[in-house]
Amino acid sequence: MKRTSTLLACAAAGLLLLSACGGGSDPLAPGGGGQAPAAADTIRIASADFPENRLLAEIYAQSLEKAGVTVERDFGIGAREVYFPGLKDGSWDLVPDYTGVLLQYINPDATETEADAVYDALKAQAPAPLTVLERSAAENKDAVVVTAATAQQHGRSLADYGPVCGQLVFGGPPEFQTRPDGLPGIAETYGCTFKEFRALDTGGPVTVAALADGTVQAADLFTTDPAIEDNGFVVLDDPQNNFAAQNVVPLINSTKATPQVTDALNAVSAKLTTEGLIQLNRQLNAPDKPEVDTVAKGWLTANGL
């Protein structure tokens, strides 16, 4: 108990320091980068503010540079509510995104949940000047995660939790309170309204520590997070598909999607797998804390890219 409480305090302090140093963004702040667009022959790549997305952005960047494309990096922008408007106004040109949550951001009334249906709807509904390229097989879904003890007491499916959610504190990123598949979706689909919401980080060490030491009893984590297995956490089943398919996909300004760019990014998507993402995240979490660019280069080399 003392060890995880210390981890929570240290992780929280780290997040505050990162924010103070300008390394983070308010995930609910008004969106739009407010920057002049990159040069016509340059791809300015953004990322969300969690490690996997930064890594995917770096993989995109290195694959494009290998193809002879000039790249600018602007990683750790914040949540979709921040970077999506910036893609539309030209502040950024490309970001790695996830099909299901991206579709629901564009169309909160979207009902598609299966991978192909979600992707087809996304291609049709992405607003100009944005488009998506080929989706990968790699999928990283949001999930409601509990400890093994909680799962033993209350069940291993969200369908079991309607009567007991009022006893549980939920933790997750601030935007999870309002996203269609966040707390509103869980309440509508499963009749589950939690006792309290604690705003934590985006599937990171603060959330993991809070769940481990009982500060929260349920949390939003990503299914590719090795911390789930390492801590013996349980991903609750989602039989009503509150969380749609979430395949990794390049979201790009269509004016920058030249054949040279498209071919390089589609080649990356063809190689990405869910198990591969889990292993990449495990590498990022290794005790020696390798740099994102080193992990990205290793993956590209191993996959002949």
Task: Write a structural description.
- Helix 1 packs antiparallel against helix 8 and helix 2 crosses helix 10.
- Strand 6, helix 7 and strand 7 form a beta-alpha-beta unit.
- The chain is 41% helix and 14% strand.
- The strands form three sheets. Strands 7-6-8-5-9 form a five-stranded mixed beta sheet. It has a three-stranded antiparallel beta sheet with strand order 3-10-4, sandwiched between helices.
- It has two domains: 100 residues, D-Maltodextrin-Binding Protein, domain 2 (3-Layer(aba) Sandwich); 164 residues, 3-Layer(aba) Sandwich (D-Maltodextrin-Binding Protein, domain 2), CATH 3.40.190.10.
- The protein is of the alpha/beta class and 305 residues long.
Topology:
Blueprint lengths: L1 H19 L21 E5 L4 H16 L3 E5 L5 H9 L5 E5 H8 L8 H11 L4 E3 L9 E5 L1 H7 L14 E4 L10 H8 L5 E4 L5 H8 L5 E5 L3 H5 L3 E2 L12 E6 L5 H13 L2 H11 L7 H11 L3
Parallel strand pairs: 1-2, 6-7, 6-8
Antiparallel strand pairs: 3-10, 4-10, 5-8, 5-9
InterPro entries: ABC_Gly_betaine_transp_sub-bd
Pfam families: OpuAC
Protein name: ABC transporter substrate-binding protein
Structure in a nutshell:
This protein has 305 residues and is α/β, with parallel strands linked by helices.
